[in-house]
Design brief:
The structure is a single chain. By secondary structure, the chain is an alpha/beta fold. It is built from 13 helices and twelve strands. α2 packs parallel to α8 and α3 crosses α4. The chain is globular, with a radius of gyration of 21 Å. It starts with 5 loop residues before the first helix and ends with a helix. The mean pLDDT is about 95. Bound molecules: pyridoxal-5'-phosphate. Pyridoxal-5'-phosphate binds next to α3 and α4.
């Protein structure tokens, strides 16, 4: 059993992928070839925004989003305390200061009430000027954009959606990747839409921002890359990866539906036994991860038990961002973020991918049940 089975997916579409790669080898435009532009059009249409700008990875997409919004020194960027380091590390990378906000215990996403409290705390202590909020759709569950948008409007903050884990998810009638002034995603192989290497993209309805992002990804180019209008990066998506993504994009909805079905199977079997992820009515998550929680003291023993039965698990994330050593010197948030801290000790992500057998889900649930029963009789 695999945690995410990329080989099964490749086997299913091997001929189409080979044909796409052969086409790139034949035309030879490895940098900014036609597939890159074709993909950007298709991604923008899929997400339902005007512009998509691809780049080298999801971390660069976030950094380019901050740079395009002219966020830098003396600016505070608020973000969730419970995410992958990439969400936060881009903030000091542009000279700005991260302020970490605690999450909602049900959804694991940035909590709107705590966001508003954080903004008040920043003002009360004169910590700086809040300019933007990076919101993550953790594990593929869309964040509470209705409330978050209201707060961002009220305090004049730029909302950046980190949709690295939520590509393909919807909230109401809108797709993830469409909720911020700028949204970003990652095409790291294990993400809901993954390539065979690194890749990323940003999404926006603003032509101005899209044009700046297109300049930044090619060394801040003006008329060409030897005419440099602004500081930039070298952050293009390879033509080869774009060609692969064009083929994989065709699978996105069926694969998401399959993961949703498996998530329901987990839910039915585990409900009442262990704390399961929430299933909000208005959201169709992408199920980048299926993450349960269990008391601290039982977390490692459960992982070990599952591993002894050939069941892989993962811990996303063992350390909340405000406690990461790399962040300590950079952040101005103070005090404890109790929900993020407690989640980091109690989460376990179970295998979920479109090629996982129902029988495997049944086996995993059975073994969790065995563990829970034995645990109580110890
Ligand atoms: C994966 C991920 C990123 C970064 O993507 P890369 O393509 O690996 O740079 C950013 N944010 C979140 C929440 C992620 O899960």
């Amino acid at each position: 059993m695999q945690f995410v089975d990329l080989n099964a997916q490749l086997s299913a579409i091997r001929q189409q992928i080979d044909a796409r790669i052969a086409k790139v080898l034949n035309h030879g435009q490895f940098i900014m070839g036609p597939e890159v532009y074709e993909l950007e059009q298709q991604l923008a249409d899929y997400v339902g925004v005007k512009h998509c700008v691809t780049c080298a990875n999801g971390t660069d997409a976030l950094q380019i989003a901050l740079m395009s919004s002219e966020i830098g020194a003396n600016d505070i960027v608020l973000t969730t305390a419970f995410s992958f380091i990439a969400t936060a590390e881009v903030i000091p990378a542009v000279g700005a200061t991260p302020y970490f906000v605690d999450v909602d215990p049900e959804t694991f996403n940035l909590c709107p009430n705590k966001l508003e409290a954080a903004i008040a705390d920043i003002a009360r202590h004169g910590l700086g000027t809040p300019k933007a909020v990076i919101v993550v759709d953790l594990f593929g569950l869309p964040a509470n954009y209705t409330e978050l948008n209201k707060i961002c409007k009220k305090y004049n903050l730029i909302l950046i959606e980190d949709a690295a884990q939520s590509f393909g998810a919807t909230l109401g009638t809108r797709k993830c990747g469409s909720f911020g002034e700028i949204a970003t995603t990652s095409f790291f192989p294990a993400k809901p839409l993954g390539c065979f290497g690194d890749g990323g993209a940003l999404f926006t309805d603003s032509l101005e921002i899209a044009d700046i992002a297109r300049s930044i990804r090619i060394h801040g180019k003006g008329a060409n890359k030897y005419d440099n209008k602004r500081l930039g990066l070298n952050s293009r998506l390879d033509t080869m990866q774009a060609a692969i993504l064009l083929e994989k994009l065709l699978l996105i909805d069926s694969e998401r539906a399959r993961r949703h079905y498996l998530a329901q199977q987990y839910h039915t079997n585990l409900k009442g036994l262990i704390s399961c992820p929430s299933f909000p009515n208005e959201a169709d998550p992408s199920w980048a991860a299926y993450t349960i929680t269990i008391a601290d003291s039982s977390r490692d023993p459960l992982c070990e038990h599952l591993s002894s039965q050939g069941i892989p698990t993962a811990i996303y994330y063992k350390t909340p961002l405000h406690l990461q050593m790399a962040m300590k010197a950079h952040t101005v948030s103070r005090g404890r973020l109790t929900i993020a801290e407690s989640l980091s000790k109690s989460v376990i992500s179970l295998p979920i991918h479109a090629y996982l057998e129902e029988a495997s889900v049944a086996k995993i649930c059975e073994q969790i049940e065995v563990f829970m029963q034995d645990k109580d009789t110890l």
